[in-house]
Write a structure and sequence with these properties.
The chain is mainly α. It has six helices and no strands. The chain has helices spanning about 5-20, 30-40, 45-55, 60-70, 70-80, 85-90.
Length: about 90
């Protein structure tokens, strides 16, 4: 059995996951900011490298690189999304 202080901390930190309104919380950092940070600061066996690899496997990254390579219009046509959808994903477009 854990001490009551430890149990209280665990309970408090798990609330955002268990509460129904946790999805309405504003993120502390955007996916792009996280990507930019870990992209330049990782070693092969580093936590940053694992985060970077996980970002590479996301839909966000697919959209991000498609825009970088082919442009916003082509991306919108290919993935049937709008510029607003892209902005909501946190991908800043010119």
């Amino acid at each position: 059995m854990l001490p009551s202080n430890a149990l209280r901390l665990i309970r408090e930190y798990s609330k955002p996951v268990t509460r129904p309104d946790w999805r309405n919380a504003k993120p502390i950092i955007s996916v792009y900011e996280l990507y930019a940070y870990v992209q330049v600061s990782w070693d092969e066996d580093d936590l940053h490298h694992n985060i970077y690899r996980n970002i590479l496997a996301t839909y966000w990254y697919t959209i991000y690189w498609h825009i970088k390579l082919r442009g916003v219009y082509n991306c919108c046509c290919r993935y049937n999304i709008t510029r607003e959808d892209i902005k909501k994903m946190g991908i800043y477009i010119e």
